[in-house]
Design brief:
Four copies of one chain form a homotetramer.
Chain A lengths: L4 E2 L4 E5 L6 E7 L9 H11 L16 E3 L3 E2 L2 E2 L4 E6 L6 H4 L11 H8 L15 H16 L4 E9 L2 E2 L5 H8 L9 H16 L6 E8 L13 H10 L4 E6 L10 H4 L3 E4 L2 E4 L7 E2 L2 E2 L4 E7 L9 E5 L4 E5 L10 H22 L13
Chain lengths: 367, 367, 367, 367
């Protein structure tokens, strides 16, 4: 059974695996009238492309996108937008040796349990490489949201024990592009880079936290009871491979607080209703309140490490040991930034249409 | 637009609001052949019923459930199961005074922004009372899962700064029923109760953490890429009103770890494949691996407090102050336990059918 | 597995069976701001109520509707509207004798094959009585559409070999209410009534054709490729129990024509684009063109007849004979009229929101 | 808003337009373990390919399919199967002249009304060419069904006034491949071919009827109330561009009959429950009964004709006349045969999984 689709009206269906022929996405439900070309998607794909620095996997992929449908005379025409990226630098040699030995921390065992027949090369469709589909969908969503002055900004806030200092929301985008770690706090970014390289040398990997902020979203996004905006964001973000937790606003810190300390009180600023604080991260009771929407994800260390690990040989049903070769990221956080942005963008775009802020058929029609 | 449905095959649609005539749920997609009567649902509803101790709201509701359809000769017959609870102890007097003044921390402002016409009495459909629908659906899901030896167990692990010690999974259920806080660590439970009562006296409320454990689920549950088991659990749990964060297994702690420290290595126990540790909380790459599934939620303090708070009068568009009367829980965690259990049960039941472990039409058919 | 829901945004979930406790519907996705009370639904239910004339089943049901949720101060508030009708005049005695003998023309055998455990009393959820759910949903859809000057009108056009003459669209509603057959051609109506009574006397039943016309729908309704307006209408209408065919506009007659004979040419009337003919029945290429939408359904004779019929005893697996007692309609067409209207109304309402003509959250917001 | 997906578990999402870069489909929800290669799809595509005889459009397209994902070592692996066909022989010159003049009988006006920005070249995504997506999805569905001994057979039963005689179900497939009209009655096929060629000479086109038979489907397919098997088949078939009516079994003829004449009585044949007649076309009350499933569609004449027709210039809003050039089929029925087969195959495959007859994850697992 499926599960390869995100969004209810703005729907992104993705396909493809790490070592297959191509990876792609079909975006159905994008209104007509949106100016869009391959370059809009390419820019976002370049942000997640591997091999761009010392701290990412050495796999070399150009990740050049090709749009197959849905654009007419430079604009979306309301029909599905299909876009693909061919896999080029495929090296499956390392995987034959371990095809019956599930790698600790990887989804191999679950996939085998579920499907029986499993593409074990590079993790198959369980690979991080499938997030190309997220990014294609997200690039289109971002372009759509830009037309409504909504911006989605991701950045790394923690790697291992190193935590970034909070930076003004409007500067994050600029700052994160300046370093390979995608952290807006320069000093922390340097330390993080060192930590990642150090971890890499030891054949290990390290986790971290990524934050995604949405600026400009109106109050009123989110459907009660089971399709709350934060629920849909949590769903989408938890769908990214390495994510083990999602929180909104203060997140897990709310457990330690009293309501009198963290309730966001209302005020009027420049004629608009705002809150004095934003502990709720822009979403209360599942509906946006017009403040910045703040979501954070816990990203586990890439499970592929070259150190020896215990596992089981599924053929002989005996315990054994593996060492994982292949090419991997010592810390996936920097490359998850554009993926998390894309993912949130899809959800916000979807809810903008669902709530009637964007016309479902053509963005030029007043909604 | 809707959003009042949970699950893809085992689908729970809920309706009703805090001060309306009734609250209920329709469960569509439950296979035929499951023995079920009103008492099965009533037992679960009683766990979340208000007015049962000093630390819950004094609102008195019997919450007696009535099944309207879907049961024939004591068993489900594959048709939708509708069940309702009539609201009895409705007191809307406190809400007239604040109908144009959104309460800090509550969804009022979002609901008004979205729907214009809003039932402000007791939070309307944004009230915690709507979780009666979750519990109805969850009770049926639990009954279904019991037939497949799957148990869902919730407990409070933290209130304010007080953290419970870890208890053997098999004892949690028994222990939590012994105290009103629903904490399995007796000593912590006593401290938590004191803290809640103390907070209540001050007209304030306090947050906490609830954990839900699923025992007995097979490996192979969860659909890649966008309907991963953890993603669907996160989605469902984040859909509970006061929840601001969801994590699986180690959760946010993964950020601080190296893969070599937390990868769950495989071994063989009693002829079955298991992992030596369970840092991943039973789900890797979005698919269950046969280990206990462990999810935790961050529950914010009930925003309704009697202390004065700043807000805005939406009619005059001037800043003002409110004091919230009405009847409220000083800590919602204990009553969220059965709701969180129900929510997880719905997702697991749904995925059991989606993965082919439970026959979609009749549980007596071998699957 | 489910299947008890109609519509994508305006969603109607129904429940209940012929001899169970209650029958009802939950409408999720109706925008806020629509004035609605029980009487709006009751009027439509009364049109399909049994026992109102010689040509319907003698089962006496008041079919009094009770709204449980979704209305606040006389208007919808955007939350799910649940409404129920309790079954009163239940007489299951006739069914015990035939519980292992599937009735020819009835769904019994399919239900047993599918679900194993089957409520055989009065056809269970396969009974025509479940269309109460359709009518509840349709009554709300009709009320919504009225606000946008869209009217849905059904009438009987054929019973047996007797065909009604075409009547001006604007007079159909008035004329059909004048006779129990719901046929707008008075002369044909009289003949039809005679034919039905004659058929009834012989212990038999007769089929017919019902047409549903939608006036006032704008051009632009319908989603390509797999959710065309006519496809969704066909789906919904074929979902009514006794329907064996659906056609739009000229329908099956197109097979005998050349394009030059039946293409609807465009013209301008009162400043608006219209077609000179309406052979396409208001839908071309799956999208409405602003002309009246015309759908017709083939309704089979009620399979319950008192004449002896061959069947099989499922317990002994031997061939046998049955005579069906119980209370039945000699011709279901007149009572299908309000059901078919309701069904089409749900689809049109759903597509009006999906196409952006009705705001998804509140009808008072300009769309 | 979307609408480019068919099926609930076995889901086919299609994309692409007549004169765009490519046309394709993504099949999500096909179980793992099914042997599949490009040739399986190519065989079906060849059946609908244009330019193969005098009676089809002269557009020359190789329609060579390329599989991008979802196959590993010659078998499906449970991940989405994406397949595309590049458009080659694109000639858009004829369309510039008529871009503001909606063609009678074509969807142009609806598309413009709905999306504003519309790809008018060759009908864009409203073109019959998009049924390549249906056929890709259907080819995979057919392959899946073959494993369960289910066969889908389509044939032309009427062109204009010429009706084919009924032929033994098991011979239809063989006979239809012998003539370009795809009619199993050889004599009628010859007359039909003459009629089509004659119509073509006059610059006109002609309609007809296509029947699709499903052999080997078990009893128990179809979900009450709103996802009945016949409702889903009607929905899918009505989604094919030129279809104006769908009927099951006797179809519209039921209107003229009494129940005593057409009720299918049960009997036992070779130890299995069967019906003596099959007037219901294998589906009663929305659920299959194990007999052959028989569906028929009314196909309108291709609206593109070279004769002059009245229309409106949307720019000047004045009435005008057009003559349609381009390349078109004088009768679309023969080429609709494989499309209708594909469409029914998708629905049957979907329902086989939904009803638990095919395991959702791997076909080799006993279901």
């Amino acid at each position: 059974m499926g599960g390869n689709r995100l969004g209810k009206i703005f729907q992104v269906t993705t396909f493809g695996s790490s070592h297959g022929r191509a990876i792609g996405a079909v975006v159905d439900g994008c209104p007509a009238g949106l100016p869009l070309d391959a370059q809009d998607i390419q820019i976002e794909l370049n942000k997640r492309r591997p091999g761009t620095s010392e701290i990412t996997t050495p796999r070399k992929e150009e990740d050049k996108v090709e749009i197959l449908s849905g654009i007419f005379q430079g604009k979306t025409d309301g029909t599905p937008i299909a876009a693909i990226v061919y896999n080029k630098d495929v090296d499956s040699s390392a995987y034959e040796a371990i095809k019956y030995k599930p790698r600790p921390g990887h989804g191999d065992y679950g996939w085998i349990s579920r499907y029986g027949h499993y593409d074990y090369r590079g993790g198959g469709r369980g690979s991080g490489r499938v997030t190309i589909g997220h990014v294609i969908g997200g690039a289109i969503a971002k372009k759509l949201l830009e037309n409504f002055n909504i911006r989605i900004i991701g950045h790394v806030t923690q790697i291992g024990h190193i935590k970034a200092k909070r930076v003004d929301f409007n500067r994050i985008e600029e700052y994160t592009l300046e370093n390979p770690v995608r952290c807006a706090d320069k000093k922390a970014a340097e330390e993080m880079e060192k930590l990642i390289l150090d971890t890499k040398k030891r054949g290990d990997s390290i986790g971290g936290i990524v934050e995604v902020i949405t600026l400009g979203a109106p109050a009123g996004l989110g459907e009660p009871v089971f399709s709350k905006l934060d629920a849909d964001i949590a769903h989408a973000l938890m769908g990214i491979g390495a994510v083990k937790g999602v929180e909104i606003g203060l997140g897990f810190k709310v457990a330690e607080h009293k309501a009198s300390e963290i309730n966001d009180e209302y005020c009027i600023k420049e004629g608009r209703i705002r809150t004095l604080t934003n502990n709720s991260g822009g979403i209360i009771g599942g509906i946006s309140n017009g403040m910045p929407i703040v979501a954070r994800i816990a990203v586990k260390p890439t499970p592929s490490i070259s150190l020896p690990q215990r596992t089981v040989d599924l053929k002989s049903m005996k315990e054994t040991t593996i060492r994982i070769k292949g090419r991997h990221d010592p810390c996936i956080c920097p490359r998850i930034v554009p993926v998390a942005e894309a993912t949130v963008a899809i959800i916000i775009a979807d809810h903008m249409i669902r709530a009637g802020f964007i016309h479902p058929c053509n963005i030029e029609i007043e909604s």
